Predict the 3D structure of the following.
Amino acid sequence: MLAFVTGATGFLGSHVARVLADQGAELRLLVRPTSNLKNLEGLKAETATGDLRDTASLEKAMAGCDTVFHVAADYRLWVRDPNEMYRSNVEGTRAILDAARKNGVQRVVYTSSVATIGFTAQGYPADEDSPVSLTDMIGHYKRSKFMAEQIAMEAGRSGMHVVTVNPTTPVGEQDVKPTPTGRIVLDFLKRKFPAYVETGLNLVDVRECARGHVAALEKGKSGERYILGGENLTLKQILDKLSRITGLPSPKVKLPYVFAFAAGMVDEAITGGLLKREPRATVETVRMGKKKMFASSDKAERELGWKIVPVEDALRRAVEWFRANGYV
């Protein structure tokens, strides 16, 4: 099997590529001329230079491939030019599917996000059938991923074999950027968590999440989506786990929502507006935090053989990797 993987230089995509390699697949990895190739070290794979926004490059790069794992995405919670995010996440997904169709690719696994799931303020675990619409999506990242997911699922219901997976919040090693999730770990290591807000996430071991992608290829139903999740944890519980792993103190002060909202406004105005850098907190991220992003992976357990594993080992690996690679 020759598998075409996008996003393999990134966090989750690099783990997907390694799982495929371990299972004997031949790999062709899409890279940009400016890509950081650190995560590909030691990986036996062919690379093809291209860009999600360049349809011709995708068609050429994908020629001869049997399967496609479209993992790449613009994963930022703040961006100066939102149009760039839509071009990568929405139009890029459309271009990948078009290239797969023209090349006669047999199966596609599209990596969506738990961000597209319908969450509630009450914190009940959401699943694939929880009511949700585009108007529920807060911020350009969520909106763009929701729109891209609709394109992928429609393709899966219209003749192509396309399975969608919805990772929750992956954590572990090789988070080179780092992602917003990795930044939680990194900020804790840098002692930038003097207080916390009442919110919650579902954390999943990035290695297990990568294995779930391969299970979706083998067992997933076309036109369906599957949540690949782990433990539902409040932010305070996550920070307490990091405290036990590192020996650093966990914050004891809970910040009321109104103060978190004000802090987001100030950080966005100064860091994003004046300094033109990505802020640590934005109004949209605070608004997202009002809903606990707790999720159920029951469907993946039933149909893919998915198993939920404790996330502590993944948090420990993330800590060790950030420290070993000079992030702290």
Q: What stands out?
A: Residues 84 and 301 are 35 Å apart (CA to CA). The chain has eleven helices and twelve strands. The longest strand covers residues 26-31.
